[in-house]
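Protocol step 4 of 5: obtain the predicted structure for the target chain.
Materials: sequence only (see below). No template structures provided, no constraints applied. The aim of this step is simply to have a reference model before the mutagenesis design in step 5. Sequence pasted as it appears in the construct record:
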Amino acid sequence: MPNTFQGVGNLADAPSIKNIIAKKGKPMKAAEMRVFFDEYEKAGDGSYTQSGGIWLPVTTYEHTAENCARLLRKGTRVKVEGRLMQFEAHDEAGNAVTAFSVIASAVFLSPTRVNSVQFAESRTRSAPSTMDESAPFDDTDFYEQQA
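Step 4 output (structure tokens):
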């Protein structure tokens, strides 16, 4: 069973987009962002205080990557769904440490601090009765490159 992740948090900076080559030589767009996934608890007086959280790097691909880079900015509140990945990194002293990142299958914009929304025209399809959706991203090409 794959490892799944869902979290809500704020972007540390605007997403950066780059062109990468995935395994099998397939060129792809990738957007990278750092998100602080916060945790709050309710106090006795009804107010909320931050009780913890974690910074995680998040990467998404293709159409979602392009839209994240175009639409999101520092501080944007997002919900991220995807796969939590574990990898080995090194601290300042060169010691191996376990680190985590999220390979996002979806990034949702929270309406917090959004003043307006402008919808794009629907894309036309050969069968007008089908829903207007992007094909799901197949991330199997990417995982070999992560090592």
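Step 4 remarks: The two ends are 20 Å apart (CA to CA). Confidence is low (pLDDT under 50) at residues 127-133.
Proceed to step 5.
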